[in-house]
Amino acid sequence: MTRCAAARRSREYGNGAPGGEYRNGALQRGGKDAEGLHELGILMSVIKTVENYAAENQVGKIEKLVLQIGEISSVIPEYMRKVYPAAVEDTLLADARLEIEILPANAECRDCGSVFHATVTGGVCPECGSRNMHLISGRDFFIKEIVCSG
Q1: How many angstroms separate the CA atoms of 137 and 94, rounded?
Q2: Do residues 71 and 24 share a domain?
Q3: Are 79 and 100 in contact (CB under 8 A)?
Q4: What pLDDT, on a 0 to 100 scale, did the predictor assign at position 48?
Q5: Which domain holds residue 20?
Q6: What pLDDT score does 60 carry?
């Protein structure tokens, strides 16, 4: 690795720590410089998937891409929107609009069978008051729709 590449890599990750920066003896992830790096990698994979689909189906243009993101997934919609223009530059999606739909974190109560929005209720079943539940949605990430022309 050249000196320039090593210096650039060090700036990307903070104090030379892969994936974060050490502060107060602990690895800190995120930070201003790292915002959207996770989402950028996900978007690059989505772009590859969409371009493969377009090639297999002789699609000339992508007009809109609709993604569904679970509200408690590890993907942050704001960062997806932020990095989208750079990710799609010089791709088949360069002129495509991005729409993001948020999927609620729904849970099912193991005691009474009720299905409820877990983040709204704080994980407490509104029917019986139990905390004995399992999450049935909210961590998901889907390509919901690809609007094509030509």
Answers
A1: 31
A2: no
A3: no
A4: 96
A5: 1-34
A6: 87
